[in-house]
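Format notes (please read before filing issues)

Several people have asked whether sequences and structure tokens are stored in separate files. They are not. Every record keeps both together, in the order shown below: the sequence lines, then the token lines. Line labels are part of the format and must not be stripped during preprocessing.
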Amino acid sequence: MSAPFPIIRDADRVRRLAALPDVRPRALERLREGAVGVVGVGGLGTAAAPYLAAAGVGKIRLIDPDVVHATDLGRQILYGPGDVGRPKVEAAAAALGIQAPATVVEAVVARLGADNGAGLLAGLDVIVDGLDDGRPRDWLNAYAVETGTPVVFGGALGYEGQVVVVAPSGPCLHCLFGSVADAAADCAREGVLGPLVGVIGSFQAAEALKLLMGLGTPLRGRLLQIDLFGGGIRVLPFAPRPGCAVCGGQGVPRRG
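Then the structure lines:
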């Protein structure tokens, strides 16, 4: 009996990545040894996770309490009609397992919070934020400051989205916005352009890969804003806020 899919060598999968300037064998090893958490497997998470798996990230931990709804299918393209009613992390893990069998995908049906967050995120090198609720995002920012674990934050609503990296030697999310506990993206009421979550999630994946490989200049202390309605992109620098309630104006410390 023939295999349902051709056998793809990992070296072939990442050949175009390996051809990039500054991508040395050690950088690819960091990807294979790396562990990335995707917290929230909705529009942003389902856009970021496939690029992480395709690039050869060794372990991806998907964390989300929700199931797939019919209203998700217009923008969360990792899912299909047959996934409606299925836990998002399980449906996403199955799709990623087909795309990149060498990547270990952990599916965790849970809602991130202060009571369980440290355990859910243990052992991760980089975290990608796909949350649509401000309170756990506040906690995630504090976790980044406490542990030095880089977090790639993203948001998308309507036609506009943004990305920022909270990582060692840079300011935290509270320095930029203050508390976001009461901020929640309500796509049901205000809508969102499907390709926007793909664009923002792709940027988040790129930032996570750069952090893992130690390449380029991460969006640390810089807010990337994208407007798909007007076709504009801008990057706004920001510094640690004096007396910040989370990092004290000192920014994010280095791990260890």
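For reference, the curators noted about this record: The first strand starts at residue 35 and ends at 39. The chain has one domain: 25-237.
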